[in-house]
Design goal:
Largest sheet: 5 strands, antiparallel
Number of domains: 2
Distance between the termini: 69 Å
CATH architecture of the largest domain: Roll
Helix content: 40-55%
Number of strands: 5
Number of helices: 1
Mean pLDDT: 89
Radius of gyration: 22 Å
Order of helices and strands: HEEEEE
Strand order of the largest sheet: 4-3-2-1-5
Structural class: alpha+beta
CATH topology of the largest domain: SH3 type barrels
Shape: rod-shaped
Low-confidence stretches: none
CATH class of the largest domain: Mainly Beta
Strand content: 25-35%
Length: 92
């Protein structure tokens, strides 16, 4: 009976450590990834975005793996969805 108690007592700190690790690191990261995926799926023509390279663009057309965006008046680029950092919200 004592061996069973000592096994549980030795595993308890590991279980607690894993629980803390899960709630402080893994779960928030999963939530952020889900929000980013939803943002990418909701992009539409006219949205303003920022790439991971720091370019500010306006979405012209969304495709499956890429987005066509306008950098300025006459320069358009094709950007992989993987490199879109965030969507700029309209600021009044």
């Amino acid at each position: 009976m004592q061996e069973s108690g000592s096994v549980i007592a030795s595993l308890l700190p590991l279980v607690v450590l894993f629980g803390i690790f899960y709630f402080l690191i893994i779960r928030p990261q999963q939530k952020q990834a889900k929000q980013h995926k939803e943002m990418l799926e909701s992009l539409k023509k006219g949205d303003k975005i920022v790439t991971s390279g720091g370019l500010y663009c306006e979405v012209i057309k969304t495709e499956e793996d890429f987005i066509k965006a306008k950098l300025n008046g006459d320069t358009t680029v094709k950007i992989s969805r993987d490199f879109i950092s965030r969507k700029l919200e309209d600021q009044a």
